[in-house]
## 1
Amino acid sequence: MPIINSVKTDPNKILPIRYPWAREHYKAGVANNWVPEEVSMQRDVEQWKSTSVLSATERRLILWNLGFFSTAESLTANNIVLAVYNHLTAPEARQYLLRQAFEEAIHTDTFIYCCDTLGLDPDEIYNMYQTIPSIRDKDDFVVEITRSVFDPGFSTEGMENTRLFLRDLVGFYVIMEGIFFYAGFAMILALKRQNKMVGIGEQFEFIMRDESLHLAFGCDVINTIRAENPDVWSREFQEELVTLIRRAVELEKRYAYDACPQGLLGINPEQFCEYVEYITERRLDRIGLTKQYGTANPFPWMSQSTDLSKEKNFFETRVTEYQTGAALEWD
Ligand code: FE
Ligand code: MN
């Protein structure tokens, strides 16, 4: 029974499992359970209130990233619940989507927690997706690619509709969660490496760990649809997707320059752009599209040092130990 376009799928009959990867991602998600209140914001609040710790550049970068993520998380949640869940009928895929939806609620909650503890103006933060062009353009871009799937009359039947659905999956899993989140991840974690706003930094580490699972699930869904509908993946369609992804990369670079025009201690804005190209290369490869950039990773610490410090954080700062497996995977 295929993962889409199957009227015979009974969404209530999860056993026997047909797509074991969906179940594995579900288990990995559960093993990574966390809530934002486990991370202390004490030092962040002190640093935010102090006039001598953070530079104007650093404050701007923090505000831009809170502004982008605070609304991007609910855009993503809406896409899963209102569009993807409808059309992905395999029960084990739906079980994963329910888990992902919960994680998006945790992420939304993280930004409420950050705004509350730092005393930020919610009207400012939650309107940045309309008032800051480099943020608005990213959101508009994914909304535009995915509009047709939200149509109540939409079905995945037929080649063109299958492509529309794939475009939605590429728009949210590959572009939104896989590219548009990553300049922000790198900026906040670079700040954390300088011992600045480490509470937000740790929350971003937890979010990034969740997002790499979302991305892995999304790529597995895309690759399954490709395998089950080989005609859909024509050269023209691949080129169209590559063009979309390249445009997304340009938007993400513009965002990186806008959020952090002067760069950070030891990091110039070009390096954030290189990082965006580097991670995009991996996304392209993962869904069988031609690599475009050949850029090396300017921040090897993004995948290495973070998971070591995470183990430490778990033992030092967590009140409750939810971690049940060694699912510390980073992308
Ligand atoms: Fe999220
Ligand atoms: Mn996500």
## 2
Amino acid sequence: MKASTTESLDIAAIRSDFPILQREVNETPLVYLDNAATSQTPEPVVETIADYYRHTNSNVERGIHQLSQEASIAYEEAHDRVAEFIGATGGREEVIFTKNTTESINIVAAAWGLEALGPGDEIVTTQMEHHSSLVTFQQLAERTGATIKFVEIDDEGYLDMDHARECITDDTKLVSVVHASNTLGTINPVAEISEIAHNHGALVLVDGAQSAPHQPIDVEAIDADFFAFSGHKMCGPTGIGVLYGKRELLESMQPYLYGGGMVRKVTYEETTFEELPWKFEAGTPVIAQGIALAKACDYLDAIGMDRIEAHGQELAAYAHDRLSSFDDIEIYGPPADDRAGLVSFNVDGVHAHDLSSIVNDHGVAIRAGDHCTQPLHDTLGIAASARASFYLYNTREEVDVLIEAIDDARQLFA
Ligand code: 7TS
């Protein structure tokens, strides 16, 4: 087991930043354990959004009036803050604000992949990818004539690294790998995968949707060529995602969307494009959301990503241990002491949707379904699973409420 640092997080103080956690659901206190889908938003981030609209709201990069200048500076600086959060020393040029992880991945497929790939080329990904990358690269392969290969998982939900070494060859042009699985809770050895890929001249995209909110990220240590994540899973608002890309790579790529904001000089005949990252941010961008995401980075860093990581892992390990005590519950993914802050499971004879509905009667929010990993569920031989996912404001007592609620469901269906 990793050392416990839960005591060092002041959970009561953290919870007071999230008024939604005071809500009741079905006349009982809300226990919010669906953080892998969307995390809650702390007051400083809500205030930042409100403040922006109260005092600064304006379009960016197109006005010389005071408000536009203030909004532009805040928006530009938000890119720098996010770059710092993920260890991108190239700063704002390497950070594109998008709508979400899904859009970030689609930009790579469209702006890089459609140009770079053709018949004979290979995309290597894994059996545990979220649909946002799996479907996107499946489509990219179909459109370009490239082949897609899936690195297999073993019985514990780890990637089979021998198989990864077999799959990645000189024909591989892109390796796309999820950093932390939203279903299994596996944390993948992305730096090692990146090294293998680079030895074969392939680029690496890391889907950081479930890692950026929960652990310190250093895109340069990982040596990711692209790194994608979403604001709404890391205390930020919806409507903002990030695509990090190595500068020279982004420079070599064509824009994804065309229009205002991304151009330098336009004539009836031709157009030159803005510098990075604006080249990839056509139209009025995600201004309030971007500024609020930077605030979310401040919020998380002030608490400490190391401590947030340890807290999530500890709660997941505790939930894993408690769920393991029931012999009619199957848990998916790695052992208790080696997983991200979530646990997916099934109770024998109870469909995950029924389970979710019964625990909702106890005020507990969990996710049920395929978690946008249908092929992985096929590999596991199941149609659906239930998932509890934790964040910095969750407590052991909340895990206990979940376990009691699950026990209630077991007895109802017994
Ligand atoms: N990649 C992973 C690993 C994810 O977990 C998700 C969202 C995405 C990509 C897509 O993020 P989006 O912001 O573009 O939607 N995962 C989940 C989930 O597990 N439950 O709801 C959304």
